[in-house]
Design goal:
By secondary structure, the chain is of the alpha/beta class. It has two domains: about 30-265, P-loop containing nucleotide triphosphate hydrolases (Rossmann fold), CATH 3.40.50.300; about 275-350, Arc Repressor Mutant, subunit A (Orthogonal Bundle), CATH 1.10.10. It is built from eight helices and 15 strands. The protein has helices spanning about 25-30, 55-70, 95-110, 130-145, 160-175, 265-295, 305-310, 315-325, and strands at about 35, 40, 45-50, 75, 80, 85-90, 120, 150, 180-185, 215-220, 230-240, 245-250, 260-265, 330, 350. The protein has a nine-stranded mixed sheet, with helices on both faces. Strand 6 (about 85-90), helix 3 and strand 7 form a beta-alpha-beta unit. Helix 2 crosses helix 3 and helix 6 (about 265-295) crosses helix 8 (about 315-325). The longest helix has 30 residues, at about 265-295. The protein is elongated, with a radius of gyration of 32 Å.
């Protein structure tokens, strides 16, 4: 009698999801870092340019795109690793402003913009959440074999924060799948006082979820209308450990007809801030002392009486008094004392600014 073979199990052994690596394998499989701007911006890692409205985000994006496309220097300081094929995506409403920015950048960088074939623009996209628009974007990236795509979302994003975040994630995925590094220019959700921004400030921007490296921009001082001068903080950071803080002084000219950039280190800004604070204090004390002298009885206007009525400390009064003397705003009053009073204190008078 023949015994039937035992039925074989139809189940296949499960693949082991746990991957084992030796240290040597771990190091061997680590791809070398590729940079757009060495030590500052990596390739194939989503980047963001974030700041409050009117903090020159688009201007910095144009400067960055131009530097990468021409193999030049971002902000005149950070050299591109090589020349890259760059695309700039924005809304049609920004066309005139971006054209003007690009022309001023090219003049400052001494680059022939019309002959710069490695920089292309797509400024007619109204809604990138539309699948058809997204497909046209993919075709555009592929057709030009773009390596970097700068996206200014000011005129593209939806109003809902959740919808905007989803849209940005889809845009980033689209770029990365085609081998392009996405750099998204996005505003913070609220206005911020002049100060340097940090990684925590990314939480107020819709692109927080996609940021692997960042350029955070904000004002150091409030903009003075008509001056054309902007004083900014620029915070650089990323998951590769890059981190630095810079001051950026931009002069656009009173007619916004130029692009002149000066990069500054923190110590020089700290010295400037201290000088401005000292100047502000001396101006405050100057007007305070002028106010005292405008009200004091001329017959009592001795230095001692003026100091008593000013309420200033000896050091502050001495510095302010000497400042006004040197500026010619305080002078000795004509002598009308009794000639027999040998030790009478001199009187002083305030010089009107119109004198």
């Amino acid at each position: 009698m023949q015994v039937a073979d035992a039925p074989q199990s139809m189940e296949q052994p499960l693949a082991n999801p746990f991957t084992e690596l030796t240290c040597a394998q771990l190091l061997a499989e680590q791809p070398p870092q590729a940079w757009l701007l060495p030590g500052m911006l990596q390739q194939h890692e989503p980047a963001v340019i974030v700041g409050p409205s009117k903090s020159l985000k688009s201007s910095l994006a144009v400067d960055l795109g131009g530097a990468l496309a021409s193999g030049g220097k971002f902000l005149g300081q950070f050299a591109a690793d090589r020349t890259f094929r760059v695309g700039f995506v924005g809304g049609d409403a920004a066309r005139a402003a971006l054209t003007d920015l690009a022309q001023r950048w090219s003049a400052a960088a001494d680059v022939d913009l019309a002959a710069l074939e490695t920089l292309v623009w797509s400024l007619s996209v109204a809604n990138l959440s539309d699948p058809a628009s997204l497909q046209r974007l993919k075709d555009w990236i592929g057709r030009h074999q773009l390596e970097v795509v700068l996206i200014d979302v000011a005129d593209l994003a939806t109003t809902s924060r959740r919808a905007q975040a989803m849209q940005l994630r889809e845009l980033v995925r689209c770029c990365l799948e085609l081998g392009a590094t996405p750099i998204v220019c996005c505003p913070t959700r609220k206005e911020l006082p002049p100060r340097a921004l940090g990684a925590a400030d990314l939480a107020s921007a819709a692109d927080n979820a996609i940021a692997r490296q960042w350029l955070l921009v904000n004002r150091r001082q409030a903009f003075e209308p008509g001056s054309g001068r902007h004083q900014l903080w620029l915070t650089l950071g990323g998951s590769a450990g890059q981190s630095s803080l810079w001051g950026v002084d931009v002069d656009e000219g009173q007619a916004c007809d130029k692009w002149k950039v000066l990069l500054r280190d923190v110590p020089s800004i700290a010295e400037e801030t201290a000088q401005l604070a000292a100047k502000s204090q001396i101006e405050h004390l100057r007007w305070k002392l002028r106010g005292v002298m405008s009200q004091i009885d001329p017959a009592q206007a001795t230095k001692l009486k003026i100091r008593e009525q000013s309420g200033m400390s000896g050091t502050k009064f001495g510095l302010t008094w000497q400042y006004l003397i040197n500026a010619g705003e305080i002078r000795l009053a004509p002598s009308n004392r009794d000639p027999h009073m040998r030790h009478a204190e001199p009187r002083y008078r305030l010089v009107e600014l119109a004198e």
